Amino acid sequence: NAGVTQTPKFQVLKTGQSMTLQCAQDMNHEYMSWYRQDPGMGLRLIHYSVGAGITDQGEVPNGYNVSRSTTEDFPLRLLSAAPSQTSVYFCASSYSDLNYGYTFGSGTRLTVV
Amino acid sequence: DQQVKQNSPSLSVQEGRISILNCDYTNSMFDYFLWYKKYPAEGPTFLISISSIKDKNEDGRFTVFLNKSAKHLSLHIVPSQPGDSAVYFCAARGTSYGKLTFGQGTILTVHP
Fold first, then answer.
1. For chain A, which terminus, N or C, has the lower number of CB atoms within 10 Å?
2. Which of A36, A95, A99 to mutate to test binding with chain B, by most B CBs within 10 Å of its CB?
3. How far is CA A27 from the centre of its chain?
4. Quick count: other Cβ atoms within 10 Å of Cβ A103?
5. CA–CA separation, A35 vs A94, rounded Å?
6. What is the mean pLDDT of chain B?
7. Most B CBs within 10 Å, among A4, A33, A102, A108, to test the B interface
8. CA-based nearest distance A56→chain B, Å
9. HSE of A91 in the Cβ direction (CA atoms, 13 Å)?
10. Which residues pair with B100 in a beta bridge?
11. In Å, how far is A71's CA from the nearest CA of chain B?
12. A67-86: per-residue pLDDT in tens?
């Protein structure tokens, strides 16, 4: 099925551990981005990309790294997990034409203990 | 600094009536606005968008209105259905293409 695929769906990390959240899309979308959702805060942009090899920071980039070596994949790396990074993470992708909006993945629920 | 604000955390409406969800923004450089619906344990789903050169866009039961002078947009759902019960987010795009700024969300409950 076409869409945005995020793995894993759930993850528990210990403080200080690192991990990579995977995101892949098969719609040949140029734009991809990562958001985190926290209660009362809406969705906040972590990092985004406007094409392969091009990434930029969003509102809350600290503690996260990204790369975009292919059009399809946009992994998010947590360098040294902290309890403040406990959240639900969403990956999204889009064409440049926003008449079609962004397509979101189903999310990764991360708990850092 | 919250550039996109949804000041109503929740809204309760009777089935068949109109639901009006509101959103305010502060950044005059925003040129595109979007509405999303989100069910628990799922990703947001795109509903409708509007360019800043328009003041209205319709898609079935959903209509978005944009008032640029007031920096205000609203989503009208007519008629409301119980399946519309969800969290609704508005979002805006500025000069950095690929970057969306979201509001905090409004929980809509439609009662049968």
1. N
2. A99
3. 17
4. 20
5. 14
6. 94
7. A102
8. 9
9. 26
10. B93
11. 14
12. 999 999 999 999 999 999 99
CB A79 within 8 A of CB B23: no
What is the arithmetic mean of pLDDT over A55-78? 96
Give the pLDDT band of residue B96 (cuts 50, 70, 90): confident
- A42 and B89: CB-CB below 8 Å? yes
Beta strands B10-14; B106-111: pairing state: parallel
Q: Model confidence over B18-43: pLDDT tens digits?
A: 999 999 999 999 999 999 999 998 99
Contacts by A45-53 with C-beta closer than 8 Å and gap 24+? A45/B99, A45/B100, A45/B101, A45/B102, A46/A76, A46/A89, A47/A76, A48/B98, A48/B99, A49/A74, A49/B98, A50/B97, A50/B98
**What is the reported pLDDT for A103?**
93
Please name the residue that has the structure tokens 């805006």: B92
**Would you say residue A1 has pLDDT above 70?**
no
Confidence check: pLDDT of A54 > 80: yes
Residue matched to tokens 């898609």: B59
Could you tell me the two tokens for A11? 């993850």
In the numeric block, the tokens 């993945």 are attached to A105
Tokens representing B101? Answer: 């700024």
